[in-house]
Amino acid sequence: MAKQKQQEIGFATAAIHVGSEPDSLTGAVGPAIVPTSTYAQDELGKPRQGYEYARVTNPTRDRLQECLAALEGGITSRVFASGMAAVTALCTMMKRGDHLVCTNNVYGGVPRLFNQILVNYDLEFSYVDTSNAGLVEKAIRKNTRYVYVETPTNPLMTISDLEAIAKICRRKGVELIVDNTFMSPYFQRPLEFGAHMVLHSTTKFLNGHSDGLGGVIVCSTKEQADKLAFIQKTAGAIMSPFECWLVLRGVKTLAVRMEQHNRNGMKVAQFLSGHRKVKRVFYPGLPDHAQYDLAKRQMGGYGSMITFETGSLANAKKLLKRVGAVCTLAESLGGVETLISHPASMTHAAIGEKGRKEIGLTDGMVRISVGIEDVEDIIADLDQALNAI
After folding, report:
1. 39 closest CA partner among 31, 48, 30
2. I want to staple 96 with a disulfide (CB 3.0 to 4.6 A). Which of 122, 261, 262, 332 is the partner?
3. What is the pTM of this model?
């Protein structure tokens, strides 16, 4: 469904082999973890293969950066200690007085960073419904440096037209940054629609096993890559070798995991949409989704992220108290296990009641990251919990 460039090798092949080539010395098929803080030099000013200090470069990190760039179709990538560290690194490329236009219902940690920390450094931020490309164009100013789009959004699953926004950004001389965490490069590759950089929390689907923390920015130009490498070196919020190895290991099964996430997600969404205790379901794979046609054009699948309305905080609490046989009440998403959460008090607590009301996020909404368990077991757990309402 998505508009995709022809690759020399297939996606699953790239996920398994790019950056994970057998070790040149031993032939080991599994990439080695290089947990060193520094490197021996043969003589002054001549480090071996360019490796001097682990904050600057690391072989395991290099492998991961090569792999993730290949999956998104970028020239290279830069990985960081967390998704928010990646967002922070992006913003350190802004200068005093620069302006950023942001999707208005992104993950709550992003506006928390923008509004409570970065505004103190004379950076400016404004928020619009980026599902309306016209609003994006109106929000761009002379001092706008970036347009930051999350699509689908967390947690309302609103979709933005990346090709339309990219055309606006290029005409205005502004760079488009896309958070592609919910879809992964398997189902959506924003660079192919004209985005300039792509961001992920690698903690989520790329890692896939809820056991590692990280973030990545995939670059389309050498200038971006060089600036971000300098930020890695200077600010130091890098991903550790062990975390890099975890993502390399996890991404090898990304294709098969995303297929199962997608199958399960659709079945759970259909179940929820037909349940008498559910008021509304937010899932781009359902024909009643406002951007269903756009989703079919822009995405190769609909993923496993679903938000649904229970009607009240009391109902949400009853539901969340009863789940647990399969669905785990926890923050985060994208793991092989099904995770369920309450956005208003968890991921979006930081934006406050007024902020949640402005974007239409209610206290009765529940978000589910559908895992790859047997879908009948996921549905049974949700059904018994919903019947407690």
Report:
1. 48
2. 122
3. 0.95
